[in-house]
Amino acid sequence: MAGQQRGRGGPVPSDVTIVEVSPRDGLQNEAVHLSTADKVELVTRLVEAGARRVEAVSFAHPRVVPAMADAEAVMAAAPRRDGVSYIGLVLNRRGLDRALDAGVDEVNAVVAVSDAFSRRNQGTGTEEAVRVAAEVVAAARSAGLRTTVTLATAFGCPFEGEVHPDRVADVAARAAEGADELCLGDTIGVGVPTQVRDLADAVRGRVGDALPLRWHFHNTRNTGYANAVAALGTGSTVLDASAGGIGGCPFAPAATGNVATEDLAYLLERMGHRTGLDLPALLPTAAFLADRLGHPVPALLPRAGTFPG
Amino acid sequence: MAGQQRGRGGPVPSDVTIVEVSPRDGLQNEAVHLSTADKVELVTRLVEAGARRVEAVSFAHPRVVPAMADAEAVMAAAPRRDGVSYIGLVLNRRGLDRALDAGVDEVNAVVAVSDAFSRRNQGTGTEEAVRVAAEVVAAARSAGLRTTVTLATAFGCPFEGEVHPDRVADVAARAAEGADELCLGDTIGVGVPTQVRDLADAVRGRVGDALPLRWHFHNTRNTGYANAVAALGTGSTVLDASAGGIGGCPFAPAATGNVATEDLAYLLERMGHRTGLDLPALLPTAAFLADRLGHPVPALLPRAGTFPG
User: Fold this and answer.
1) Does the keyword Coiled coil apply (chains A, B) (predicted)?
2) pLDDT digits 0-9 by tens, A234-274
């Protein structure tokens, strides 16, 4: 259980790290591309509201993910604070070289568990992605960076359908070799709490309890927050979320995005967990994003208000 | 635990009854009032999709809740099927007389745990509402009807703030005397899973395990579905939900509504529970509601689609 305890009624209150992914997963699929200055303002707002791990940029090829083409400029202008760690998403060795030059603190390498999704998303099958991720992790570690491997489509694939937990565990065992953290991603927002528990069991049965699990949930079908609670129930304490809940999937265009940082923080704090986030400071960021993106954002707390008020 | 078992990873898969509340809680606060014919179409759609308990009407005074003024006409035209039970919301003895004349199968009497909310919502304090509910329950039972007492604002009040579980248990012990079911309502959508467990413990500690608990969640702050999973974890098997997720609270105008029947059914079925609902048959109802109400509805499954497809 990775050092965690479990109470009779659910997870014991603990410190929970919300990895803020709005600058990367949130923005990368938006029709409107934010200016570098607006991205830096977003990152600054997040850090000032207490975010300590921020997935700020992606080093995917600019032709494939044009919204992230200014990753180097964003990193150069992002505020540097003690205790704040910036994460760069990396898909290959060239991306890692850019990440190292740009001065990220952490690297997140992605492997899609579903072969069909991997080919469409990254242009390579899962096996090749595993090989590349291992190379990226080894090189990043040599450079002194913290490393995460994220397994995309771990809860289901829009092309292949169901993904079995044993398949996820099998890919995890090979992809996460040497990484500091393994992130299980519900890329298209189909997962449910029983799957969270099944995946945690299957993966830990293969890679052991020492490797911390991080979780990436989308609220596409209103299951994301229940999944987050279930993940804490398995002993994990690291969850991805996105300010405003922005961040859809390009293969599910009508879908809502990541679980919203505000709503997740409200849920967790009311359950007795500590996120380190300052909700009143964070809330106006949703309106900033809605204004810059030109559409409402899915987060509900900015509309409904905190409680008690 | 009311005959329920609890697995190591959460509730054991079971039959879950979703009480469909869109015709009542869903519609009563909408600016647009549906025609009687449209309400009957809604009820018919729900029954044809498998709904077996439907809160179809309210017998609140027509001056106070004008959207429900045609309760008798809706009941007269609603399709009668074996196994389908229609519930009428009743706030006083006059409402019960109307409900009996209209031929409902069940009565739902409401008591707001918060005195301030009770005065604004029902025009009487909590103590008077408890007395009236007891009278309604006794008379309804004499008439052979199934009875529920719903405790509104059991998770928090927009005027008084926090509501302590002991207060809820105290009101429950007096209000639910003789009722067949006790429903705990998160009227303004502030609750979290730990509160669900605390409330279940507190109430069962006072009224015992024999009285079945039903739960009414709003997804105002994106906690509703996690709360639903937590409620199953306490051994309950009856949850309110509203097709399309319609149904805000008049004291929280920007807020989204009840948990959506479609999204809750998806979540529960994927967890191995059986709801008896036919999701493909139910999904078009969200578009019907959006069309009649003139605005999008909060349910996400109708936009994202089921999985696997």
Assistant:
1) no
2) 999 999 999 999 997 655 555 578 999 999 999 999 999 99
pLDDT tens by residue, A10-68: 557 799 999 999 999 999 989 899 999 999 999 999 999 999 999 999 999 999 999 99
For residues A42 and A44, what is the distance between their CA atoms, to the nearest angstrom?
5
Per-residue pLDDT tens for B164-215? 999 999 999 999 999 999 999 999 999 999 999 999 999 999 999 999 999 9
Which domains, and CATH codes, for chain B? 6-304 (3.20.20.70)
Report the residue from A197, A270, A300 with minimal CB separation from B220: A300
In terms of DSSP bridges, do strands B10-11 and B6-7 run parallel, antiparallel, or are they unpaired? Answer: antiparallel
Q: B303 and A189 in contact by Cβ < 8 A?
A: no
Q: Which residues on chain A are in Cβ contact (under 8 Å) with B162?
A: 308
3-state secondary structure of A67: helix
The Cα A146–Cα A85 span in angstroms is 10
CA–CA distances in Å: residue A82 to residues A50, A71, A86, A106, A278 = 12, 21, 11, 15, 17
Q: Which DSSP string do the residues of chain B spell out, in sequence order?
A: -TT--EETTEEPP-B-EEEE-IIIIITTT-SSPPPHHHHHHHHHHHHHTT--EEEEEE-S-TTT-GGGTTHHHHHHHSPP-TT-EEEEEE-SHHHHHHHHHHT-SEEEEEEESSHHHHHHHHSS-HHHHHHHHHHHHHHHHHTT-EEEEEEETSS-BTTTB---HHHHHHHHHHHTTT-SEEEEEETTS---HHHHHHHHHHHHHHH-SSS-EEEEEB-TTS-HHHHHHHHHHTT--EEEEBGGG---BTTBTT---BPBHHHHHHHHHHTT-B----HHHHTHHHHHHHHHHTS--S-SHHHH--S--
Q: What chain A residue is nearest to B260 in terms of C-alpha separation? A: A222
Distance from CA of B142 to the nearest CA of A (A): 39
Contact (CB<8Å) B221/A307 = yes
Q: By three-state DSSP, how is residue A300 classified?
A: coil
Contact assessment for residue B56 and residue B74, using Cβ atoms and an 8 Å cutoff:
yes
Contact B249, B187 (CB under 8 A): yes
CB B72 within 8 A of CB B101: yes
Residues of B carrying an active site annotation: 249
